[in-house]
């Protein structure tokens, strides 16, 4: 009994020691490098209050008298269980938001409902089950359109650029397939680690859980009633301390989920990364993920036959019609062989459906994994420079095609 009490007290002390080190939000991380940062709140049609962080310009461009205004707007959308923090961890030399600001863009960093920056609602309590009753359906149908409209209204522009990582691809596809008129508001769309179909993922935990929780039933109902953010908040308190003492342990843990044996992951970032990850989400969104793994389809949330009939008018959830997506420019897809969550097989299947609506970029780095698109030591030269260059080309600015030479001549 005494031992248990001592361990509990030690745990409390450790958490208090760790907590001050992880108290920075996205704007704190941006302004410490000399960049201006703004905090914006977007209200969705169903009442969620979503936080976006804005980097309106770079301090490196303040003295440029010939600056073209308004600066083109770009929306960056994070991955599952992530937040806007993930984009700025690499700092001003490598981080994509800083590179975009330096290139003359108005940068907006989004957060989905339910993560640590977007746990507010006009009428619902964040601790209520009703608040957490959302999946990718609601994010694609409400969150993304609200953010796009807010940015365009705020900047007085008609179109913007979109960059999505992992889940950021999936919810973009939901928006564009369910609200195809929003394609008229997109200049370019660039997708990193683009997991849309999830049939062939190699990440062990989801593949083990999908047959159990990836279909409607008693177990999935119990899982869906859980409060997921409490565990996420606890993990963000504990993991950074572990990473500071043993970065190899953290690297192995991360790579077991997203792709093993990568030599590119920047281990010096891991303690900071795990202070922001997992950022929290709803159990229903996790169930939606497992459903897509289990069904091998890209479709709406499966409530079970009876509720599906009431909600969708059919026994099975409807698939998202990807052929409705018609953007002015092909969607740029950046992917790699060692990505456990956005596999070559699933991207090939997506290409068979969407064809020339996609422009495929398969990295030459065979061991590049899912999180290397954000945390790699060479992320600037391998991916980010090319992303910026594609946008510069669209804007009619000076660009350098050689920055996109890290990809195979043929994707498949």
3D architecture notes:
It is built from 16 helices and 9 strands. It is an alpha/beta fold. It has a single domain, classed as 3-Layer(aba) Sandwich (Rossmann fold), CATH 3.40.50.1820. Helix 6 links the parallel strand 6 (160-165) and strand 7 (186-192). The longest helix has 20 residues, at 136-155.
Could you list some keywords that capture this structure?
412 residues, alpha/beta, 16 helices, globular, nine-stranded mixed beta sheet, Rossmann fold
Task: Give a quick rundown of the structure.
41% of the residues lie in helices and 12% in strands.
| Topology as a string of helices (H) and strands (E) | HHEEEHHEEHEHEHHHHHHHEHEHH
Radius of gyration: 21 Å
Number of helical regions: 16
Number of domains: 1
* CATH fold annotation: Rossmann fold
Secondary structure tally: strands:
9
User: Mean pLDDT across all residues, rounded?
Assistant: 90
Relative strand content:
5-15%
For the record, the CATH class is Alpha Beta
Q: What structural class results from the helix and strand content? A: alpha/beta
Tell me roughly what share of residues is in helical segments: 40-55%
Overall, the morphology is: globular
């Amino acid at each position: 009994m005494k031992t248990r009490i001592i361990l509990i007290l030690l745990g409390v002390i450790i958490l208090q020691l760790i907590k001050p080190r992880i108290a920075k939000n996205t704007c704190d991380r941006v302004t410490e490098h000399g960049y201006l940062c703004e905090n914006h709140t977007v209200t969705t049609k169903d009442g969620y209050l979503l936080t976006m962080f804005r980097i309106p310009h770079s301090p490196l461009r303040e003295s440029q008298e010939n600056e073209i205004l308004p600066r083109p707007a770009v929306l960056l959308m994070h991955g599952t269980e992530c937040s806007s923090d993930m984009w700025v961890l690499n700092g001003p030399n490598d981080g994509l938001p800083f590179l975009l600001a330096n290139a003359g863009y108005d940068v907006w960093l989004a957060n989905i409902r339910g993560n640590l920056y977007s746990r507010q609602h006009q009428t619902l309590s964040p601790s209520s089950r009703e608040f957490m009753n959302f999946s990718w359906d609601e994010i694609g149908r409400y969150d993304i359109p609200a953010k796009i409209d807010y940015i365009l209204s705020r900047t007085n522009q008609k179109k913007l650029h979109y960059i999505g990582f992992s889940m950021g691809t999936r919810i973009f596809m939901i928006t564009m397939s369910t609200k195809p008129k929003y394609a008229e508001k997109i200049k370019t769309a660039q997708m990193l680690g683009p997991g849309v179909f999830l049939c062939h993922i190699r990440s062990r935990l989801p593949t083990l859980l999908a047959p159990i929780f990836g279909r409607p039933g008693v177990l999935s109902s119990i899982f869906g009633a859980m409060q997921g953010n409490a565990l996420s908040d606890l993990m963000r308190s504990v993991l950074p301390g572990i990473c500071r003492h043993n970065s190899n342990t953290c690297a192995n843990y991360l790579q077991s989920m997203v792709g093993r044996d990568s030599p590119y992951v920047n281990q010096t970032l891991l303690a900071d990364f795990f202070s922001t990850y997992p950022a929290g989400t709803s159990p229903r969104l996790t169930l939606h993920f497992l459903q897509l793994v289990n069904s091998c389809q890209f479709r709406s949330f499966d409530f079970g036959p009876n509720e599906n009939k009431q909600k969708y008018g059919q026994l099975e959830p409807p698939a998202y019609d990807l052929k409705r997506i018609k953007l002015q420019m092909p969607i740029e897809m950046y992917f790699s062989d060692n990505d456990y969550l956005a596999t070559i097989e699933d991207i090939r299947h997506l290409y068979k459906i969407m064809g020339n609506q996609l422009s495929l970029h398969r990295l030459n780095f065979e061991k590049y994994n899912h999180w290397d698109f954000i945390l790699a030591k060479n992320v600037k030269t391998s991916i980010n420079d090319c992303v910026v260059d594609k946008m510069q080309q669209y804007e009619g600015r000076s660009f350098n095609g050689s920055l996109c030479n890290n990809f195979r001549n043929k994707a498949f």
